[in-house]
Design brief:
Blueprint (H helix, E strand, L loop, with lengths): L7 H9 L5 E8 L4 E8 L5 H18 L3 H17 L4 H15 L5 H10 L2 H12 L22
Antiparallel strand pairs: 1-2
């Protein structure tokens, strides 16, 4: 969705509309909960348009799901990240600790790679529909936030 130069958010908000220098999304999860967040560094006068475009992209994602090329790119990036985490002892320790926190156990690298390879586009789209059907929350930092139309976000 966001993070790479070719991501939906970056293409729409930065490249097509020139509204932000940096745009990305991220996930953070543990065994029992998690968060999906979107960030855009923009000016106060462009913030309402950026919020509107973010909402529009999330609606599209919830309705239409991820495209095949987006899905494959994300899967390959995830697999590459796993392989890169094997590069040094400290990276390996970090990865093992993270797996323990996120899954509650330590999978072998091979089993983890196998699990990632088994993820389907359909399961990702189902998760996106479920997650994006819930009311969002927003944290906005900066000057002139009273001028933002937060009604449009919710």
């Amino acid at each position: 969705v966001g993070g790479a130069v070719s991501s939906r958010l970056n293409q729409t908000i930065r490249e097509q509309h020139g509204l932000a220098y940096n745009v990305y999304s991220s996930i953070s999860n543990t065994l029992t909960c998690g968060q999906f967040s979107i960030y855009a560094g923009t000016s106060p006068e462009k913030a309402n348009k950026v919020l509107s475009l973010m909402k529009s992209e999330m609606k599209k994602l919830g309705k239409d799901g991820v495209k095949e090329d987006e899905f494959e790119q994300a899967k390959q990036q995830t697999l590459a990240g796993i392989v890169m985490s094997l590069d040094s002892a400290s990276s390996r320790m970090h990865a093992v600790g993270q797996r323990l926190l996120l899954q509650g156990d330590i999978l072998s690298d091979e089993k983890l790679i196998e699990k990632v390879r088994s993820i389907t586009r359909g399961s990702v789209n189902e998760a996106a529909r479920e997650m994006l059907s819930k009311a969002p929350c927003a944290a906005i930092v900066g000057p002139e936030i009273n001028d933002l139309d937060l009604e449009m976000v919710f």
